[in-house]
Amino acid sequence: MRREIVDASQLELTEKVVSIKRVTKVVKGGRNMRFSALVVVGDGNGHVGAGLGKAAEIPEAIRKGKEDAIKSLITVKLDENKSLTHDVTGKHTGASVLMKKAPQGTGIIAGGPARAVCELAGIENIRTKSLGSNNKQNVVLATIDALSQLKSPEEVAAARGKSVEEILG
């Protein structure tokens, strides 16, 4: 998986909390309660990232998750319909996400975790199917893996030594 480093200071990022879990550690004196927050951030214009934050209070966990997500921003290649340039499948542990290019007017057809990533990436027309695990964290990371695999027609043409018109047909 290739990741491009994006300067987050120039982007206007919005955040979406995908899940908040209460996690418990049993210790000698009883139980330690903490919270784990899965946060997705994006600018709605081709940049998206996901992060996990853990803390004793929910707002602190969300803040840490947002900071972690900003560190893992990726750039997404979109076509003129604000859709994908080609169909792609992303995998992370037991979760797989199939993402298909869609024509104008389709909208975002995706489940909860994959929908959050697509909306914040700025994708407006897409069909997705989550396969395998339903774990929210793994589905989000599989979706980001799929988006990081996308290539623009220009990149494919350069790699094959052809023109963009020959690639697009």
Q: Percent helix among the residues?
A: 25-40%
Q: In what range is the share of β-strand residues? A: 25-35%
Largest beta-sheet characterization:
4 strands, antiparallel
Q: Which structural class should the secondary elements be placed in?
A: alpha+beta
Average pLDDT across residues? 91
Index terms:
single chain, 30% helix, 4-stranded antiparallel β-sheet, 169 residues, 4-stranded mixed β-sheet, 5 helices, alpha+beta
Describe, in short, the structure shown.
This protein is 30% helix and 35% strand.
Explain the overall architecture:
This protein has helices at about 60-70, 110-120, 135-150, 155-160, 165-169, and strands at about 15-25, 30-40, 45-55, 75, 90, 95-100, 110, 125-130. The protein is elongated. It is of the alpha+beta class and about 170 residues long. Helix content is about 30%, strand content about 35%. Strands 1-2-3-4 form a 4-stranded antiparallel β-sheet. Helix 2 (about 110-120) packs parallel to helix 3.
Describe how the helices and strands are arranged.
Elements: E1 14-27, E2 30-42, E3 47-55, H1 58-71, E4 74-75, E5 88-92, E6 95-101, E7 108-109, H2 112-121, E8 126-132, H3 136-148, H4 153-160, H5 164-168
Parallel strand pairs: 7-8
Antiparallel strand pairs: 1-2, 2-3, 3-4, 5-6, 6-8
Helix pairs in contact: 2-3
